[in-house]
């Protein structure tokens, strides 16, 4: 296979969902199809207890978070599939968002009974901003949920994206008979042996064979719905899917392994191949046109194995091929080095990787060399990929060293963890107290743990709570007197002014009183 064919076979995506929608279950089914795991229950370390014996970072053990399945890879129908994990709400952090910078598409799993939930919405917004294609899997059809039309409407209204149902449920819950597959033009029956599972459609779109299902009200309801979709629904457009403006919707039940394979096969046909990325000087690095190795670091995972005190920098390969032993240059410093140790993450194993190509994720052992957003290149041409966006934090914590004698280590630790992207740094205007910002509580816990273990500093943490952070377009017009308890003025790590508002109300009130101040949020 040529390098180009190798690259074009890649599909790299993340599954986004609210906790409990069924992400783990669906991931597991996908890995089973791909032959990457043999038993169900392998992915869900927290419940099967499989990882309890391994020595992962203590905090992860305590909280039952599994970091081992950060990247999963398998082969299916000539494709090489990379699934990047985006953890659930209690382990939610900026990493979760940044992971979405490293994929080419996203699969959104929705619980049919719950519809669009908070976490899904947050993650969706990040995908939308990047314009990446989103494929929707509406799960748990074996249970009674919302009406399918209602779900489609909710999707369109809450998320502001057009939806195109690729298939449609016939019945639901106890009366779930199967799905009407608009795309493959067949009906797939629920809980039916493989040989009889698929029923063909006739030219008018009805079942072409005699079948007891045909006389049920569920079938006629589904047919009515489909007629409606055909006449009044969105038009199918691959172009719009590619631009992230239209989401193809699939129904199914991950737990009973129904509709997952059909989803996977259809998804793989439409999911984008590894996409180009833009450099800081606005050049496109196209994986197919540019043959030299390049990639960027989107995540740094500390202490995956405390026995080695290692850190792993996760690299999304943008172009070319990685080979173990090759020379790489870190664009930020211009330093070159030979990469002898690298890992790939496959379900619960970490394997040494010898080769990987654009679209793949590799892990580089890191002894403090890398920062989030760093570019590594293999060829002579040096360039830097566009900076990864900074995300607007929602949670704040005032921190200080418990022991004032440790001020030096305290600042060193914070500086490094901030550079690594573990947490965001802010300070108050005159007193220069340190405030840390995060998008998820876990970031504070990891911070506290690492300060103690890696920098030997115990930190005092006082919650400042939820705030709405807003940056300012016209900083010169800001006066310090505008700062109050409900609209606190602070500085970020680049010395930009930021208002931390108590809540939406406080922000609106501020804006009404100070119409000339132009506020904006980061991603
Ligand atoms: P998550 O990773 O998105 O958090 O969800 P996960 O797959 O862990 O699924 C959450 C719960 O929903 C699990 O039940 C799982 O078995 C169930 N589930 C997933 N897909 C389906 C489905 O298609 N139909 C039905 N009826 N249930 C589904 P649990 O009781 O919380 O966990 P477990 O003890 O069964 O593992």
Automatic annotation (TrEMBL):
Positions of the Tr-type G domain: 8-275
Subcellular location(s) per record: Cytoplasm
Entry's Gene Ontology cellular component terms: cytosol
Highest taxon listed in the record's lineage: Bacteria
Pfam families for this protein: EF-G_D2 (PF22042), GTP_EFTU (PF00009), RF3_C (PF16658)
Biological role: Increases the formation of ribosomal termination complexes and stimulates activities of RF-1 and RF-2. It binds guanine nucleotides and has strong preference for UGA stop codons. It may interact directly with the ribosome. The stimulation of RF-1 and RF-2 is significantly reduced by GTP and GDP, but not by GMP.
Record protein name field: Peptide chain release factor 3
UniProt organism field: Metasolibacillus meyeri
């Amino acid at each position: 296979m040529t390098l180009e064919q190798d690259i074009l076979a890649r599909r790299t995506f993340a599954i986004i969902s609210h906790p409990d929608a069924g992400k783990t279950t669906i991931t597991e089914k996908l890995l089973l199809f791909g032959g990457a795991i043999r038993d169900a229950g392998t992915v869900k370390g927290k419940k099967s207890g499989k990882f309890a014996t391994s020595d992962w970072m203590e905090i992860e053990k305590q909280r039952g978070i599994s970091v081992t399945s950060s990247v999963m890879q398998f082969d299916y129908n000539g494709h090489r599939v990379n699934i990047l994990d985006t953890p659930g709400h209690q382990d939610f952090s900026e990493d979760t968002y940044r992971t979405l910078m490293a994929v080419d598409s996203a699969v959104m799993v929705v619980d049919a009974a719950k519809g669009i939930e908070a976490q899904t919405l947050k993650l969706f917004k990040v995908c939308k901003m990047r314009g990446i294609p989103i494929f929707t899997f509406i799960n748990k059809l074996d249970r009674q949920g919302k009406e399918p039309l209602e779900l489609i409407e909710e999707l369109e209204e809450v998320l502001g994206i057009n939806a195109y149902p690729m298939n449609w449920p016939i019945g639901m819950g106890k009366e779930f008979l199967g799905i009407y597959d608009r795309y493959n033009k067949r009906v797939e029956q629920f809980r039916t042996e493989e040989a009889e599972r698929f029923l063909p459609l006739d030219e008018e779109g009805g079942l072409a064979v005699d079948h007891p299902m045909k006389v049920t009200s569920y079938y006629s309801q589904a047919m009515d719905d489909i007629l409606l979709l055909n006449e009044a629904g969105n038009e199918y457009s691959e172009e719009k899917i590619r631009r992230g403006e239209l989401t193809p919707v699939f129904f199914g039940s991950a737990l009973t392994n129904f509709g997952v394979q059909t989803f996977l096969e259809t998804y793989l046909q439409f999911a984008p191949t590894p996409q180009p990325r833009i450099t800081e000087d606005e050049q496109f690095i196209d994986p197919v046109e540019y043959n030299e190795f390049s990639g960027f670091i989107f995540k740094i995972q500390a202490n995956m194995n405390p026995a080695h005190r290692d850190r792993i920098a996760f690299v999304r390969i943008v172009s070319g091929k990685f080979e173990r032993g090759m020379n790489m240059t870190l664009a930020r410093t211009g330093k070159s080095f030979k990469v002898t140790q690298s890992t790939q993450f496959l379900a619960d194993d970490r394997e040494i990787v010898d080769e990987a190509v654009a679209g793949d994720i590799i892990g580089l052992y890191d002894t403090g060399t890398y920062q989030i957003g760093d570019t590594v290149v293999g060829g002579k041409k040096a360039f830097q990929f566009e900076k990864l966006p900074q995300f607007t934090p929602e949670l704040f914590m005032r921190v200080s060293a418990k022991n004032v004698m440790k001020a030096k280590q305290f600042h060193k630790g914070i500086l490094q963890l901030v550079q690594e992207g573990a947490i965001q740094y802010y300070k108050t205007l005159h007193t220069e107290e340190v405030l840390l910002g995060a998008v998820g509580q876990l970031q504070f816990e990891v911070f506290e743990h690492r300060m103690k273990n890696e920098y030997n500093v115990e930190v005092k943490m006082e919650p400042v709570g939820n705030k709405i952070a807003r940056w300012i377009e016209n900083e010169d017009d800001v006066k310090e007197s505008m700062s109050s308890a409900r609209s606190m003025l602070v500085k970020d790590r680049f010395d930009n002014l930021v208002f931390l508002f108590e809540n939406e109300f406080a922000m609106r009130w501020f804006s009404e009183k100070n119409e000339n101040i132009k506020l904006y949020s980061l991603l």
